[in-house]
Structure formats: structure tokens, C-alpha cells
## 1
Amino acid sequence: DAKTTQPNSMESNEEEPVHLPCNHSTISGTDYIHWYRQLPSQGPEYVIHGLTSNVNNRMASLAIAEDRKSSTLILHRATLRDAAVYYCILRDVLQGGSEKLVFGKGTKLTVNP
Amino acid sequence: DAGVTQSPTHLIKTRGQHVTLRCSPISGHKSVSWYQQVLGQGPQFIFQYYEKEERGRGNFPDRFSARQFPNYSSELNVNALLLGDSALYLCASSLLPAGGPIRNEQFFGPGTRLTVL
């Protein structure tokens, strides 16, 4: 029941920028777009999230299309430590006001030295 | 500060057995969620607990159950194990059960790798 679609894999060279796309055509007006990544042999970790405006933090930037049906995670200078599976996620609201993360298969990013 | 901890790291069981997985959230976090990650797939939501009450349940059979203790740690129990239960079981903690506009990120532990033979 994932609400997002991403390419299965992408490849980049070290020190180069990486643009990871995500489609979420059924997004509602109140859905926040979240990105998590999962390094090998680790649990997922938060990267960034946003609603409408582009967002920046120390890890990455998030560019959100004007119609919000797609977004792009930008790693400005990929390092070998950025090799991971990147998940674009829309949260699902549950009864009682709680929420869950709905993961798809994500994009496996390979960074070449 | 310690992150989310899970035990055991690895576990091997046979079909029909029962298993208990444990999770300690980050100090101050009252919400714990459990996810199952089968090889090659993204994590799938199993349960969420907040303040010791179940707040959400995913599409998993009744063989799966969980509980949260007064110190906010949690256990996931799986009865009558099947081969298909082999997976990485992830626990995540957060301050609140839902974020809305605030960040409320979920912090994941390293997981418990369960193998059912």
C-alpha cells in the first residue's frame, strides 16, 4: 500500500551531486513528504521532510514540485558513506491519532569512488 | 545518549515455535512502533504503542502481538512461527504517536534478524 514510486536503483560518483526522484501523485494537501535512508546492516534513519517549500538541512535538500505530485532528494556531494537505500515516504494516519510510515522498496544508491 | 536498542541481535527458531523480541526506546520517548522487513523489501508496519496502549495495528495475523511496559520498553511476540516470518524486525521510537507539522522523526534500532527453519 505504498503511496510513492521510486527507481529501484541509481548510481553516482563520489563528490558529485545526486538527485533521487520520487512520485506521489495521490498526495493529499496535508501529507508531509518524508525521506529516510537505510545504510547496510542498520535500521532506517531520518533524512529530511517537507510540505510545500524546498527544505535544506545538513544532510540533504528536498525539492518539492509545485503541484506536490513529485519530489527530489538532493545530496550535494555524495560520499561513499551515502551508499544506502533511500525511502520516500508519506505517513498514514491511524485511528486514535497515531501514524505509521509506509515504506516502498526505495532506491538503492551506489556511490563509486 | 543511547539510541534504540533491540535484543537479541540474531535468533534462529524452528517452525511452530514462539519468539519474543525486545526493544528499549530512546529515553523520553513514549511511542514505540514495530516493523517487519523481509529481504529486498521496505519495512512493513506491525504495531504502534503509546503510553502502554496499542494505537495502531498493521495487516498481520493474530499470531503477532505486542505490549509496552511502564518504562516504555516493548516486546513483540510471534506464535506458531512460519517460514515466512523470517525477517528483520525493527523497533522505532518517537516522542509522540503522530507528528503532523512537527518533525517527530522515528528513530530505528538495528533490528533483530529472525530465521525460521
## 2
Amino acid sequence: DIQMTQSPSSLSASVGDRVTITCRASQSVSNYLNWYQRIPGKAPKLLIYAASSLQSGVPSRFSGSGSGTDFTLTISSLQPEDFAGYYCQETYTVPFTFGPGTTVDVK
Amino acid sequence: EVQLVESGGGLVQPGGSLRLSCAASGFTVSSNYMNWVRQAPGKGLEWVSVIYTGGSTFYADSVKGRFTISRDNSKNTLYLQMNSVRAEDTAVYYCARQYGGGDGFDIWGQGTMVTVSS
């Protein structure tokens, strides 16, 4: 099975900050890498698919990059509604493993 | 409107069974890859199972042999039959649409809570 890691596990930031989260796969997943936002009490929301494609309706301040084993999610200017959990996930092969998550909270 | 609505969660004793349902509207379940994902209290997201358009099914090792994913095309509904449940199966269970192979999960249900306890 492919193992997914994320760093950092949590970070504190302020509105307007640029935030970068890293995801690493234990073997190549090509570009089959997705990013989700998780707000407590709500269903996960797909932000980025295929490593760098912005899901419809997602603000352009979110962007993704990478291929193979190393990926990043960037929020260019953090907004109040962006304080949440973020998860990467590979859909290259089953099991479709999620990363352990990164919590973005208020500094 | 495209949406998924789960039901069937609740309290079940260890070793018992439960069937979760996920009713789809606005799209056809059988034309998409359909998944179950869970989140235990205080834990991260865990992929559970997928059923492909052709009917092939796959499971996480943690549920293999105990859980069964299926769909009823006439009802446009996805199911998860949970047998021999354990305390560690306690979680919110989500169904999610995966538009195609390799794609992300773009539509999620609201989740249904399963609690395994005596």
C-alpha cells in the first residue's frame, strides 16, 4: 500500500498569510493526488484534483503543484473561512490512502 | 440538485451488523465510482471501500472480509453492509462520488454516525 505523509501536522497563521502544506507519497502516484478541506461538522470538500486542477467553485487562492511523490497545497492569502483541516489523498491505486491531515488555526 | 444522503447509522453492539445506505440524486450511481470513507472521533479520514462502474469492489484491509459494498441501480442507492463490527469501526461514515478512475471525490454525503458499543 502507498503511505502518505503531510507536513506540518498543524500550523498557526493569520488572515492574509501565504500558507503551504506538503504531502509526500511513499512511491510515485503520478499526478493522481487530491486535496480536501475538512471543517468540523461538515463533509470534506474537494479543492484540488490531479495535483494541480482547481475543482469547480473553489476560490483561486487555492493552488496545487507537484508530481510523482512530492506535492504542495498553497493558499495564497488566507481567509477567515480557510481555518480548517486539509488532507491529501492518492487515487493512483487502491487503497485510496489519505494523508494524516494538517490543521490550520488562528495565530 | 446533485447530492448524496446517507442513512442507517446508529448504535450497534460489538459483533453485530448494520447496513448503511446512500441515496443519490442528480446523477447515476452505476455510472460513477462510488466510495465509502470514514472518520473516527479525533482521527483523520480513512478510505473504506470502492465499487467501480463495472461492479468490481475493493476494501481497506481493516474491513476486508467484514464489510460489503453494493449498489441497487433501480433505487440509485449505494450500500455498505457492516458485519462483525468492532469498537474501532466507530466513526462517521461518508459516501462519496468519484467521477472516474484516478479522480478525486467530488460529491460527498453529510455523513452518518456509527457507534459500536455494548
